[in-house]
Amino acid sequence: MPRRLAALGLLALAACGAPVSETLTTVRHVPSNAVYAGDARMHLFIFDPSEPRSLEDRKAIARRSIALEPNCAWVDAPDDVLEAETRKQGDRYAETMLVAPLRCNRA
Asked: Which keywords label this protein (predicted)?
């Protein structure tokens, strides 16, 4: 019986977390040649092209991804900069890519 209660407790805690689709979402990123704020480089974050996402969603997923990389750090930039840099990739990528600055060490 205690195991069953523990399992129910874990299920209840899991229900309080982020939606499963967001925690499993992956993103790839590649550096560009564009410099931002002197020592940061703009990176292209590439999401699943079949699922358009808002700017806030793309930023949140990208930030979570970068938090797992010990050699890179997110650099805050205004949303209008992120939107303008992303639009440079083409209108059809406006909701499936994100261009944002990072500071990365080459370790």
From this structure: Signal
